[in-house]
Amino acid sequence: MFFVTEPNTKPWTMQQIADAAGVSVTTVSHTMSGKRPVNPQTALRIKRLIDEFGYVPDAGARRLQSGRSRMIGLAVPDISNWYFGRIARGAEEMADELDYGLIVCSTFNSDPRREKRYFNMVRTRMIDGLVYTAGREMNEMNELEKVALSSPVVLADEGINRLSSIPWVTSENFEGGRLAGAHVRELGHTKAVIIGGFAGLNSTVERVAGIREFFPNALVLNGDFEMQSGYDLVGDLLANDVRFTAVFGGNDLMAIGAIKRLREAGLRVPEDVTVVGFDDVEIASVITPALTTVRQDVVSIGRNSARLLIEGLEAGTFEGTSSVILPVQLVVRATSGPLAPDPRR
Amino acid sequence: MFFVTEPNTKPWTMQQIADAAGVSVTTVSHTMSGKRPVNPQTALRIKRLIDEFGYVPDAGARRLQSGRSRMIGLAVPDISNWYFGRIARGAEEMADELDYGLIVCSTFNSDPRREKRYFNMVRTRMIDGLVYTAGREMNEMNELEKVALSSPVVLADEGINRLSSIPWVTSENFEGGRLAGAHVRELGHTKAVIIGGFAGLNSTVERVAGIREFFPNALVLNGDFEMQSGYDLVGDLLANDVRFTAVFGGNDLMAIGAIKRLREAGLRVPEDVTVVGFDDVEIASVITPALTTVRQDVVSIGRNSARLLIEGLEAGTFEGTSSVILPVQLVVRATSGPLAPDPRR
DNA sequence: CTGAAAGCGCTTACAG
DNA sequence: CTGAAAGCGCTTACAG
Fold first, then answer.
1. Interface mutation target, options A1, A2, A153, chain B, most CBs of B under 10 Å
2. A-chain residue closest to B111, CA distance
């Protein structure tokens, strides 16, 4: 039987191991850490007992002494979201490689109560530092600033201008916008609309700016990165008789939602309307027609964020740590093309 | 400036608050916990200082005394996977509602080193209990059994027969298979193939058994729940001239991969081949044709797992805790239909 | 090569 | 209404 019948099994303590081995806790401690020579015979005996008992030192007590938990945190708006899942994956990989544990926490789109809880994990020294990923916007960051004063914090995905001394990791969003814009412009389009992500995010602002290098007057509507918002925003455009032959999605999901809505309106993609996404999610190459998009390496954002954080942690400072901007890549597939003649137009 | 310039800021201690307030730590402690009356004047003064200093009690020290961290863990094979992301989301919601913190950890498909790390988080009392989600199979579970002996563990998504005393939460997988099987059988199909998930998982076994109630001789191939494996397995079937008019996917992704491969072979869905998935992911209703599938409430699996765990934790035992089996639902869309006449057949 | 003891930052009987 | 002190389970100077 399991926990059912032995609910209050106390874990073994180092003292108990010491008693069983007939030595002091000092010697047990040093046997485990290897920080001081121990008689091989004694060491062997102790190790055997540790194995036999299944003894594991208490993490809290250990931390109380060393001041380090070798755990870092990752705060994301919603862990069930594909995008943040990829970031988490990358951060975990890197943390693992550097022998740190990673604790992932959802802020449920920046719910202040939740955020506070995670910030407190740093404050209470449960974790040594935090990778923070913004949800809707990066303005009301007073709490984060406070935490960053005394503890290492790295921003993943979104930089904050005001907090320029906090290292951050992001993709070349502006360049991504430019690539998409140039591509669509070359195809001969002149009337484009942008259905972007949250307006408060730097990434959104930058992507829009990049696109507008080629479509200076492009209408910008903001959604929430979900498929439904792409669908709805295109619906609004159509309902208002806005003329356009190209749509830039804030991400792939919004682009896919847009395609769905366009089709329902009897418009063909790409013959009548060109659609371009951002991210290059797995499904982008599977849908028909396959989605033209700007690929960013989201896992790498996670990896680099964790790396910067842990490096700063070990160095004791972010002095000399520089932020990371990751390259993006245009992936031309089938949702973009030159305008085809349409009898109805 | 931030962490850059003040790397070694020590956090405030309760003693410092006590000194500043001219009281003992005892009084500060009781002011915070409310476990003993404190002079209102004094209490106010202390609270002000706590606010002013931004004091937060050390989590490790606290735990050392109380024996409780009010943190639970969730071990999943891969957090970047949609499915486990949903489970994590649900578990986090519930933990939050019950005032617990949730720590999510990827085992990277049951990498023993990683698993050990997370099991140790329970052993070292960093977390009070663990929700465990299996990756490929549920057989080599010796480590998990050991942990479950002394600490509360709940299995999400997969039960283990041998470990029947560990509570688990899962969907009605057998019933889901039956629903899908009955539906396709009613459409008049007689030759079906099953491209299932990992063979070592109970969920896979049960779904297959359900389908086979209606297609007793259906061929079963096993994949890994990824789109590519659905694509590849259908490729194998076609290359071997296996005759079938219906495909059951181990999940939606495999079904979508299957559809892609069928199309490339010139087969129409559903006119030539009916395809049914499992899960009902968001994209299922967006692809063309929209996917017929069995919907399961994955977030609910996460919610219930966390609930069972925390209830057991507070009760000090799983005595009387019963496992949870969540209902599923057939969602008929456009990838399933009666066989259409085909000149080539 | 080894141990007694101080101390990390809290909580909580015990005493007043 | 309040405080001195023991103790949670470790690590690490200090002493031998």
1. A2
2. A96
Regarding whether B180 and B164 lie in a shared domain, the answer is no
- The CA distance from A58 to A67, in Å, is 14
The confidence band for A1, taking pLDDT boundaries of 50, 70 and 90, is very low
B104 CB neighbours in chain A (<8 A) are 79, 88, 103-105
Clarify whether residues B292 and B302 are in a common domain. Answer: no
For A255 and D5, how far is CA from C1' in angstroms?
67
Place of tokens 């992301």: B85
- The sheet with strand B274-276 has its strands ordered as B219-222, B192-196, B246-249, B274-276
Its domain, for residue A254, covers: 173-296
| DSSP per-residue string spanning B53-82 | HT----HHHHHHHHS---EEEEEES-TTSH
User: What CATH number does residue B225 fall under?
Assistant: 3.40.50.2300
Residue B110: inside a domain: yes
Q: What pLDDT sits at residue B11? A: 82
The answer to whether residues B141 and B88 belong to one domain is yes
Q: Residue A100, SS3?
A: coil
Give the lowest-confidence range in A121-135, A214-228, A246-260, B98-112. Answer: B98-112
Helical residues (DSSP H) of B213-330, grouped into ranges? 227-239, 252-264, 298-315
Smallest CA–CA separation between B60 and chain A, in Å? Answer: 4
Residue with more model confidence, B150 or B79: B79
Kindly state whether residue B85 falls inside one of the protein's structural domains.
yes
CA A203 from chain centre, in angstroms, equals 13
